[in-house]
Fold Adenine DNA glycosylase.
Amino acid sequence: MDATVRQPRAADLLAWYDRHRRVLPWRALPGEQADPYRVWASEIMLQQTTITAVKPYFERFMARFPTVDALAQAPSESVMQAWAGLGYYSRARNLHACAKVVAGQHGGRFPDTEEGLRELPGIGAYTAGAVAAIAFDRPAAAVDGNVERVMTRLFAIEEEMPGAKPLVRERVLALMPSRPGDFAQALMDLGATICTPRSPACGLCPWREPCRARIAGTQETYPRKAAKKTGKTRFGAAFVAMREDGAVLVRTRPAKGLLGGMVEVPGGEWRADYRLEEALRDAPLVAQWRRLIAPVRHVFTHFPLELTIFVAKLPLDAQAPEGMRFTPFARLREEAFPSVFLKALEAGLEGLQRH
DNA sequence: AAGTCGTGGTG
DNA sequence: TCACCAAGACT
């Protein structure tokens, strides 16, 4: 330890935060107490998701489900539809389950401690700390990707993530000031606007002097972490069948697993060794299927996907196979399609139209 | 305790 | 194009 290096003070960060804090829909104004329901819902939405993507969803969600009780009473299809396009759909299922617990077992009030929050579905170490700190001003650590980056740089922590997480947490708690909620948000604002992954604006940072990584000129090398490998491309087929009246054949996916509980156009299993010659085996029914030239490409977190699109027109008296249903064209937008099937559907409709 | 689980933006 | 990243949780 170089004794001449100044130690970081939370007060310097809070002073910066008081001048530069971001204005966000779920964030209380200075001096106001935040609404736990809004804080919680926003935290779930923001897991691994950008603020830009979340904002419109959050506004619609709050208009549709203004209270935790309203959310608890809503049908799951309604919740999944409100979430469609945001990704990580288990978050939506857990969010709904959590609302039911809070409404049914806690009188509609969220637990006001980290431990109590941690018991609820969908709330892990980070979210429990964030809600405890932001909504209830508890001195809890909310260690997300931003905070990991800020702290590993500030203290030049060499241990790789996620192994260094307990150490990062200790460092945060050791700095905890008398404004825990603002401190938690200040750390995240700093990470999001100044202490960015690439080209951090160290000259504007309130902690530039005590930052050990900046002193060494190695800011961008933190946090240390092992490189992750990308999965093999998987292939599959998607069948867009339109009845003469415009209704489209769809089905709901199983509740668990990939895209669980969301709506899809029919298709088979996605495999790395998929054989296009056998694609029609996955067809939901017998029809004059026409294959579109351009496949639909989509990238999931752990594998790329290439979907071959087949289209067909069906007679008005066509029956939906077991487990499937026809959705009127005008109501397609009300279905909880994840993005990949929205792409497949759009490609299919486009293909049907030009024929 | 690695793998699973979406999507869109960025350099 | 491509790897990385974004207020992670769950198994």
User: Anything to note?
Assistant: Residues 42-54, 88, 90-91, 94, 121-127, 130, 142, 144-147, 184-185, 188, 191-192, 197-198, 227-228, 230 of chain A lie near DNA strand C (CB under 10 Å from a C1'). Chain A has a mean pLDDT of 96. Strands of chain A lie at 234-243, 248-252, 263-264, 290-291, 296-299, 304-314, 325-327. The first helix of chain A runs from residue 10 to 20.
